[in-house]
Amino acid sequence: MSITFPAGITPPTQTSHASSFEQKLNAAKSSQVLVEYLKENGKSAINARELSELANNANGGVPSDVSAAAAYMVRHEDVFAAIETHDVAGEDGLSGVWNFEWAAAGGLEGSSIEAIAAMSDAFDRAINASAKITEITTESKTELDATKQRAQN
Predict the structure, then answer these.
(1) Which residues of 2-33 are buried (b: 16+ CB within 10 A; e: fewer)?
(2) What is the pLDDT of residues 56-99, one digit of tens each?
(3) What is the DSSP letter of 27?
(4) Is 34 within 8 Å of 66 (Cβ atoms)?
(5) What is the DSSP string of 80-115?
(6) Reported pTM
(7) Measuring CA to CA, which residue among 34, 26, 37 is closest to residue 106?
């Protein structure tokens, strides 16, 4: 199925909602980015609150790729839980670098947790694209309707 846009209207791209880097994130890539960041900053572990702070990047001092990787983990709580409990029986909200290294090496590859996260991301992209298309078509229809209005005497 193809959509034809009116003249002067360009179709939305996925990059209008998220960077290309963010769209390609998964458990392994996010974990690798976090491993590198944690090691560079002399940290051996990170808890859920710190992960959320990295994702929010309130002070603007966190590199964008690290913020995006942390946001991926925050958005996909099940992925973070699977990573942090890789080596222990229960969740405590704290994950060591070694757990992220395991995930970066493909530890969650092929798991239902990774599949659900990927489907969730695909649905989110589809919803965002649909919203953008609705916005564009509504604006175009409004402009078209305005040109059809008759002058009031």
Answers:
(1) eeeeeeeeeebeeeebbeeebeebbbbbbbbb
(2) 888 888 888 999 999 988 888 888 888 888 777 777 778 888 88
(3) H
(4) yes
(5) HHHHHTSSSSS--SEEEHHHHHHHHTTTTTT-HHHH
(6) 0.60
(7) 26
